[in-house]
From TrEMBL:
This is LLM class flavin-dependent oxidoreductase. Residues 1-283 form the Luciferase-like domain. GO terms for molecular function: oxidoreductase activity, acting on paired donors, with incorporation or reduction of molecular oxygen. To bacterial alkanal monooxygenase alpha and beta chains. It comes from Anaerobacillus alkaliphilus. NCBIfam families: oxido_grp_1 (TIGR03558). It comes from the Bacteria. InterPro entries: Bact_Lucif_Oxidored, CmoO-like, Luciferase-like_dom, Luciferase-like_sf. GO terms for cellular component: cytosol.
Length: 319
């Protein structure tokens, strides 16, 4: 089972953004130590509880302080930017860290309407142009342009991923020969159907397909402890605006979010992950874990990482 990390750089209780970003580096290093396939960091704007607004900056920092784990964006929000600039940034990273860079792109605003307006003009129009933006970006990444190159040109280009939760995103990924990451943790859509659509479209084009399914998970030493951490963390994130208690609609949202999560001890989590892998026909599972404390988050990933270590081939003692 290939497992990876999606980091939203949450600002835990009593933390500053500086400490949260420092913890992001620690998490990437933990992922490398425990055998996770890749580490991605997300892009958000004007969220007091999420610290990373510039994945490309963090990836340079993380790449310089890790050795072999793949690192990437989950995701660069393409409608905000010119494809050429995005290609330049990730060609730069791929030149600095050969064979390790993933360029994941999405189309969400990543923040409030006010933040979106401050960041870019005509965002909604750019969303409608997403297929054209993706096509232009891929031309630069594949180095298919003549007059303008997105330099420096890396020996190994970044691997491109389209992140999405809809049939449109699945089809768009297949059309451009991109790998596909389905965000089940933030979707009510039928991920199985969408992933089948993506694989079918890739097969029709005679090209390989690759799928990551992203889930929210909290693992602890016992099931009871994991449940408590999950509930406390969900309540804390929902009440960061200072309110006490939840109204009826918030309580319903709380229950919806909890049901989407994988919560349990290592045995529970392993069984759930195996079932998801089989049900979704996923090549890889990516986990996002946000808790009230950084220690709980690290411990969750460590416990899951132990599952990877148990699955690793054992070295022959006679060699």
């Amino acid at each position: 089972m290939r497992l990876s990390i999606l980091d939203q750089a949450p600002v835990a209780a009593n933390q500053t953004a500086e400490l949260a970003l420092s913890d992001s580096l620690k998490l990437a290093q933990l992922g490398e130590e425990y055998g996770f396939e890749r580490y991605w960091i997300a892009e958000h704007h004007n969220f007091s509880g999420l610290a990373c607004s510039a994945p490309e900056v963090m990836l340079a920092y993380i790449g310089a302080n890790t050795s072999n784990i793949r690192i990437g964006s989950g995701a660069i929000l393409l409608p905000h930017y010119k494809p050429y600039k995005v290609a330049e940034l990730f060609h730069m990273l791929a030149t600095l860290f050969p064979g390790r860079i993933d360029l994941g792109i999405g189309r969400a605003p990543g923040g409030s309407a006010e933040a979106t307006n401050a960041l870019s003009d005509n965002f909604l129009q750019q969303v409608w142009k997403m297929p054209n933006l993706v096509e232009e970006l891929m031309m630069y990444v594949k180095q298919e342009t003549e007059l303008v190159k997105a330099r420096p040109l890396p020996v190994t280009p970044p691997k491109t991923w389209l992140l999405g939760t809809s049939k449109k995103s699945a089809i768009l990924a297949a059309e451009h020969g991109m790998a596909y990451a389905f965000g089940q943790f933030m979707s009510d859509n039928d991920g199985k159907e969408i992933i089948e659509l993506y694989r079918g479209a890739c097969k029709e084009k005679g090209q390989p397909s690759e799928v990551i399914i992203t889930l929210s998970a909290i693992c602890a030493n016992t099931r009871k402890e994991a449940e408590e951490i999950a509930e406390n963390s969900l309540l804390w994130f929902m009440k960061k605006d200072g309110k006490h208690g939840l109204n009826e609609s918030e309580r319903q949202e709380f229950e919806v979010q909890k049901k989407k999560m994988i919560i349990g001890d290592p045995k529970d989590v392993k069984e759930r992950l195996k079932k998801v892998q089989q049900d979704y026909n996923a090549d890889e599972i990516m986990l996002v874990t946000n808790t009230q404390s950084a220690e709980e988050r690290f411990n969750s990933y460590k416990l899951v990482g132990e599952l990877l270590r148990c699955q690793a081939p054992q070295k022959d003692k006679n060699t």
